[in-house]
Amino acid sequence: MISHQPRSFDAVLGGKTPPPVGGLVLGGTLGVKTRISSPISAQRRIALVEALKYGEIGLNLLVQRLEDSSIAVRHGARILLNQRSPQIIKKYLSQWQQYQDFTYITSLDRTDSRPINAIALDGQFLISCGREHSLRVWSLVLGKQIYNLSGHTDMVTSVAISSQRKLLISGSCDRTIKVWDLSKLKNPEILTLTGHHGYVNSVALLPDQNTLISGSQDTTIKFWDIDRGKNIHTIKGHTNLVNAVVLSPDGRIMASCSWNTMIRVWNPLTGAQIWELIGHSAKVWAFAITPDNKILVSGSKDKTIKLWDLTTGVEICTLDGHKGEVRALVISPDGKTLFSASFKEIMIWDLTRRQLVRILKGHSGVINAIALSADGLTLVSGGEDGLINIWAVA
User: Fold this and answer.
1) Predicted local confidence at residue 22, as pLDDT
2) How far is 253 from 266, CA to CA, in rounded Å?
3) Could you give the dihedral angle defined by the CA atoms of residues 238, 240, 244 and 247, in that order, rounded to the nearest 10 degrees?
4) Among 71, 159, 166, 348, which residue's CB has the most CB atoms within a 10 Å radius?
């Protein structure tokens, strides 16, 4: 029997009948206006992306959706406007109380429940890696995966993004680091770096957007020149596997941690060690450094968060409250708010007063990764439960 209903991949003309999710609407601005007014929120989210093709008319449609009844549609409109026309968004910022009013938006539409290892944000796109050999690229506006990056031969553990160069960096248990060109849909892999003799657990980029740093199970930290595709320096200061590396915003300080509880602080330009920070009673999982490059924040299996003065190497204070090990940390762009992820919960802290402000609940297990958008208004979390949750200031 022949069906006259549109299929999910068909193109349809704009009209009163909502098209299938994922279908392409033809008919210019009239079709987009029809879809963006659809009673189905999924259709309105698709229309947001289409609206960008129609200049000032499209921008006006996005502005209208900032008042949409669906929080997911409002969030999508804000992301796109912030990329295309930031001055419009600035007019609305006073309506949003940053950081304290985060609300659950949605969970990404995943087809499996494998745990998430790491995530990174770049404008309207999200990159995730889990207990698999590939990376997934998602649209935050649509809440859907848009393509898959395959090439690693073992689990991918870590990711970093160069927004300026549109490059994605991934580290893997296959002992390699891969560099991907996010501007290419075909053959995006442009470089594979080899030299580590153990799992690559962490990757980070210096502000020059060309020098890459990796921490490995082989106890070393390696520096790589992306353009030349070669290792330019290796630090061998740890006696146990390197679990994580982090760089200060100005690129002049690097911190690394191992499973022996010790934190080491380095000058990444010379490779010289500056401090050894001892205070945690169990292995350290995560780091973050404030935008002014003065405070290092560490999260540990001992369930605590510690703040360290990078000028003196002295512990400032300890933040207690998590019921499980602290697996991920991120600091707001203004340096005033800390987000920490642990078992089932994300805690939001006022860094100035050193006080807990709010707790976000939405996972059923350990949260392994969190990432914050450049404007500080979108938070993404991924965990052992396989969920990737989107949170935003409502």
Assistant:
1) 46
2) 6
3) 0
4) 159
